[in-house]
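Supplementary Note 3. Input sequence used for the single-chain structure prediction.
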Amino acid sequence: MTRKPEKLPADFLQPHPGLGLLRLAALLAERDGDVEDEDLETMFGQMEAGALAITAASQIWPELARGLMAPAPATMLRTLRESGCLQEILPEVASLFGVPQIADNLGETDLGAHMLATLTEAARQNAPLAVRFALLVMNIGKIDSPPEHLPYHYRHANRARPRIEKLCDRFDVPAEYRALALLAVTNVERVHRVSSVRAGPVAHLLQQLGAFDTPALYDLLIQLCTCDYCAYGSRSGQDYPKAALLKTALKACAGIAPVDDAGGKSTEALQEARALAIALAFRSQRWSIHGPA
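The predicted structure, written as discrete structure tokens, is reproduced below.
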């Protein structure tokens, strides 16, 4: 049940009004409720007076992180947007709202609304901060796609990478969060398109995603892709078919020796061996489900 909005204490935004604005937004993410209109107006007035402009980025990031890790991170983002604060501290993220995107066979979605939905899914799945941060920023290369191309976003990765790098530098975001956000820019869509029809590309994709060399980062990416998938339409809580497919492929490659200096497989031979193992696993899976062809 939605709680009645709670009025702020008179001195909530003092003596550090910039931090007070951010702490309020993070606090709202702890519960199911909205801030009162007059408090949004107070936040807007403080923001207009320059409260956030004099707040160091090093002070802003911990409050953002706190809100992102709360049970309702989308509430923080909505509050910041409605009060004008989001445009001040994260203009790249604020610009996602109103930008359309094609959502496979579900029609168009608004990138800002979708970002909020992915964060809601991340909270539902108890995802770590690295995943939540990447979901927040991974689409900022799409905010200025040419209008004549919308709702498609060609070459958005080329625009996203430097923006994410700059944003991470601004807030001193941990390196592992940056790495996941950059990996997600192009690879979320690749994971969504993966198919069991051709095993070779699946083996190549697993290599590209670091499934063999950086498994912890790969696992975070798959969790991120799951949140993105479940944020569309009425998929919340559903299983993500591509995650299951890639899990089967990765398991099939488990016993294949990596390249080494003592007679191990060459890179090409290694990829061929992995592709064959994946093909056999996919064929076996189809056989068990559908019977002999």
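Residues 1-5, 287-293 have pLDDT under 50 and may be disordered. The chain is about 60% helix and 0% strand.
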